[in-house]
Amino acid sequence: STTYLAKRLKQNKVIGFEPNPIPFKVGQRAISSFSNIELFNLGLSDKPGKVNLFVTKNEVSSSLFDLKDLS
Fold first, then answer.
1. Is this model's pTM higher than 0.70 or not?
2. How many Cα atoms within 13 Å fall on the side-chain side of residue 66?
3. What are the CB-based long-range contacts (under 8 Å, 24+) for 23-32?
4. What is the rounded CA–CA span in Å between residue 17 and residue 56?
5. Where are any strands of DSSP class E within the chain?
6. Are 44 and 10 in contact (CB under 8 A)?
7. DSSP state of 53
8. Residues 2-43: tens digit of each pLDDT
9. What span, in angstroms and rounded, lies between the C-alpha atoms of 33 and 29?
């Protein structure tokens, strides 16, 4: 976790990525007291471009693959 690393690597900058906007907002609140964390609302890939992000109704699961909502 980003905060786990930031606590242990206080002299380093920790960079986090969260493509799902809902957990990203939660993450922003969670890191507000850390000066050594930078959080980005995006995903990473080895290829350029954009893809769809499939999110379940409970918003805790997301994937590049279409998830069948089991909740």
1. yes
2. 0
3. 23/59, 23/60, 27/2, 30/3, 31/2, 31/3, 31/6
4. 19
5. 14-17, 37-40, 54-55, 62-63
6. no
7. -
8. 999 999 999 999 999 999 888 899 999 999 999 999 999 999
9. 8
